[in-house]
Specification:
- 50% of the residues lie in helices and 17% in strands.
- It is α+β, with helices and mostly antiparallel strands.
- It has one domain.
- Helix 2 runs antiparallel to helix 4.
- The longest helix has 30 residues.
């Protein structure tokens, strides 16, 4: 999914130490779920902004996906973009060519929803940490 954007959450050392203190794999799971929730906010906005064809059938929005790129106890990274095997050509809509003007939707989605995505990551981190503490 190289033709998209990447959402990275690198844990501050204090957060990483606290997550490491939780159950062995809980820190990684909590961080990954929280980052996925933030990435989903941006993905949904990209779907909303994606151009629609006048024809019935599949649209660009149907190919906008998020997937985990990396996950560790102190870092989680998700990519938001197109399925490069099925919809590789959609990058031309985002960036434009000399024949068609750009119809950006991935970058504007990030620009408009980055604060909301950050808040969602924080909420999910709190939820996950609270749940792990109750289990411990």
């Amino acid at each position: 999914m190289a033709d998209g954007m990447t959402v990275k959450l690198s844990g501050a050392s204090k957060l990483a130490r606290r997550l490491a203190a939780l159950e062995r794999n809980a820190g990684r799971t909590i961080l990954s779920r929280a980052t996925a929730a933030g990435a989903e906010v941006i993905r949904q906005e990209a779907v909303r902004l994606a151009p629609r064809s006048a024809r019935k059938g599949v649209h660009a929005a149907d190919h906008i996906k998020r997937r985990r790129v990396k996950a560790s106890r102190s870092r989680a990274e998700f990519a938001i973009g197109y399925d490069k095997k099925k919809a590789w050509y959609l990058r031309f809509l985002e960036l434009g060519t000399k024949f068609i003007s750009a119809q950006p939707h991935l970058r504007p989605a990030l620009d408009t929803k980055k604060n909301e995505a950050t808040r969602e990551v924080g909420r999910e981190l709190k939820r996950g940490i609270d749940a792990a503490r109750k289990k411990a």
